[in-house]
Amino acid sequence: MPNSRLRRNGWSTIGLGLSVAFAVGVFVYFWLAGTPLRGAVVALLVLLAGVWEHRRKVRDVVVAESYEAEAEAQRRENRK
Question: What per-residue confidence (pLDDT) applies to 8?
């Protein structure tokens, strides 16, 4: 299952990268509009949301794998 885990983490990493790119774009847009402080605040919010979502997805993968391992161990125990 390591390939499956890499693929799931890859998608969450791509999502994080898109959040970072969008945050930079928002900051640049507001900077050019003449309100850099507002741009920094909005960019920070977008960045924090992206990081939070990335961490949640990675944590979900780890929890799911632990449940799968526990179920597999129970199946092996029941076969004996």
Answer: 60
